[in-house]
Amino acid sequence: MTEQYEIFRDPYRMLILLATLVSEQKGEQALQFDNVPYYENDTFLIQNEKFVYKKVPTEITWFQFLGRDIACNQDYSREEYNKMFVDCLASLYQIN
Fold first, then answer.
1. Which domain holds residue 70?
2. Cα 6 to the chain's mean position, in Å?
3. Of 95, 63, 11, residue with least CA distance to 19
4. What are phi and psi of 61, to 5 degrees?
5. Residue-by-residue DSSP string for the chain
6. What pTM, to 2 d.p., does this model score?
7. Nearest to 93 by CA among 47, 85, 37, 55
């Protein structure tokens, strides 16, 4: 079994922001925490109950609702989480 690590409040907020922006890009009115929309590019994948950062194999999972029993397979600092999510946001808007 893969070890699971606690995810801090700040990265959780960044994940919500990323999921919200994906929802907006897909034309949805608002993020549904129980039905996160599917999106994938070369940098990340997000779908209901899972987020994957592809550059460094990282997986964040949750149970049924985004934020419920949330865990990550890597033990990152807040700074490392923030860099990861900034990279994901840049890739979402194709900013180099």
1. 9-92
2. 14
3. 11
4. -125, 160
5. ----B---HHHHHHHHHHHHHHHHHTT-SS--TTSPPPEE-SSEEEETTEEEETTTTEEEE-SSSTTTT-EESS---HHHHHHHHHHHHHHHTT--
6. 0.87
7. 85
The string of pLDDT tens digits covering residues 22-63 is 999 999 988 999 999 999 999 999 999 999 999 999 999 999
Q: Which two tokens stand for residue 5?
A: 């690590």
The rounded distance, in Å, linking the Cα atoms of 6 and 70 is 7
Show the tokens assigned to 85: 């999510």
Sign of CA dihedral 1, 66, 33, 25: negative
- Number of compact structural domains in the chain: 1
With respect to residue 85, please indicate whether it lies within any of the assigned structural domains: yes
